[in-house]
Amino acid sequence: MTMRRSLGNACSGQSAPRGVLTAMVAISGLTALFILGQVLLLFLREKALCLNQGCAVVEELLRIPPLWFNLMGAGFFLLLFLLTLTGRRRGYLPCPLPLLLLAGAAAEGVLVAYQAFVARAFCSYCLTICGALLLLNLLAGRRQVVTAVAVFLVPLLLFSLLQFRPVGTAGKKVTIDNGTWGIRQCSNPERQLYLIFSEECPHCRRVLQLLEGCSRCELHFNPIHAIAPDLLPGVRPEKDFDPAVNIATLNMLGIDTIPVLIEKQPTGWKFIQGEGRISSYLRKNCLGKESATMETIPAQTLQWLELEQKEDGECRIESNCDDNLIPKNGSPGL
User: Fold this and answer.
1) Which CATH architecture has domain 176-325?
2) Average pLDDT, the chain
């Protein structure tokens, strides 16, 4: 009897004020419900709710379906909820709780580092969950939060010291063609073009509407995340499509907005940003209407280029882009 009592005390954890434990119960429970709501949306609509396009970018980089990834997160926070609820009734933090909170901080450190240095796009939904987990560590005590912050920062430091370049399975560098979802070809095309876009960007959608039907150009459609097949009727999806290649291309160009049109030439690359300039270029060179100016990038300096950002009917990759934010000159003639 004495031995059992001593063992129980050894795993009783540290005492904590009832108000702190109540707050931890509320935060862990609400976060679990928040993730379960996302799970329900994924199950019913097969599309998550997010405040920006960075969520879609990050989802496309997962090896497992977002539904299962969110179920894992919901299970983790449900476990935290049950442990904090038990601790609240008894007046202490159960011994497994601090360790689980540190494990969560380490996992969030890796996820945030991946968003910052690989995806180059932040998921507002993910950052909300990260904030909830760090807040739980803060409520668990001064020593706990110091350790959690250290565990969280280590992956960020390590990721900042590494270089991430897309490579093929055979060790070959991936080209922009690996980011092509589908190709619209016509007989005797005069130009080979790559359109980097997002299904959720209204500027991109209007450019796609302009490109409906045949033209004098071979068009490669390179979305930054997976798209619905009916978005591009008549275009056959490629088997090895990888949206991460398109994100890497924008990173190398120093561009954080879409749509972007790239023309491949033997001597380098030509590019144009923004709905208005892209529409003008397409009308002149592919549809035969009006003029546009373009800039030339020497191929050998492509990865070191830094471009001036121009607001001309563009959506930022990591944020929503509403129609009421479109510049008046962003879509001439549409």
Assistant:
1) 3-Layer(aba) Sandwich (3.40)
2) 76
pLDDT digits (tens, 9 = 90+) for 281-308: 888 888 754 333 334 444 433 333 333 3
Tell me the C-alpha distance between 12 and 179, whole Å. 53
In the chain, the DSSP E strands lie at 182-184, 191-197, 217-223, 257-258, 260-265, 268-273, 295-298, 315-316
Instruction: Report the C-alpha gap between 189 and 187 in whole angstroms.
Output: 6
Query: pLDDT for 163-176, tens place per residue?
Result: 665 544 444 566 78
Which tokens sit at 240?
A: 């090895």
Residue tagged 């969520």 (tokens): 55
pLDDT tens, 79-115? 999 999 998 888 888 888 999 999 999 999 999 998 8
Residues 260 and 314: their CA atoms lie apart, in Å, by 9
- Percent of the chain past pLDDT 90, that is, above it, reads 24
* Residue whose pair of structure tokens reads 């969950």 in the numeric block: 129
Going from the C-alpha of 110 to that of each of 117, 129, 268, 303, the distances in angstroms are: 10, 14, 36, 26
Fold agreement between 12-160 and 176-325: no
CATH level 3 topology of 12-160: de novo design (two linked rop proteins) (1.20.1440)
101, 102, 105, 109: CA torsion to nearest 10: -160
Beta bridge partners of 192: 218
* Neighbour tally for 249: CB within 10 Å: 24
pLDDT in tens, 277-286: 888 888 888 8
Largest CA distance in the chain: 91
